[in-house]
Specification:
48% strand, 11% helix, mainly beta, 2 helices, globular
């Protein structure tokens, strides 16, 4: 998703850092964060606070302060505080 977030690389790992200006939406509740764990090992769509979406990514882990996802052939880490919604991808549901 160009232009809405920036990432830093450490080897084969990308860490997604959303921009903090002009954020939309609200952060997920603690209960909703816990619910993310049921999607571990599945393909999901993520809506971020800055308005961007990450579609059809593999959720490796939803524990701790970051979501570990696999997208476009790379491991990425998305701060949980930047995620406002998550749901199973259509490809996973089909």
């Amino acid at each position: 998703m160009p232009g809405r977030f920036h990432s830093s690389r450490r080897g084969n790992v990308s860490i997604i850092k959303p921009y903090t200006t002009g954020e939309k939406g609200t952060a997920m509740t603690v209960e909703r964060r816990r619910e993310l764990r049921r999607f571990e090992g599945s393909s999901v769509n993520l809506a971020l606070a800055d308005g961007t979406r990450l579609d059809d990514v593999s959720l490796v882990s939803a524990r701790g302060t970051s979501l570990w996802i696999f997208a476009s052939g790379e491991d990425r880490f998305v701060p949980v505080t930047s995620v406002i919604d998550a749901w199973p991808s259509t490809a996973a549901a089909a």
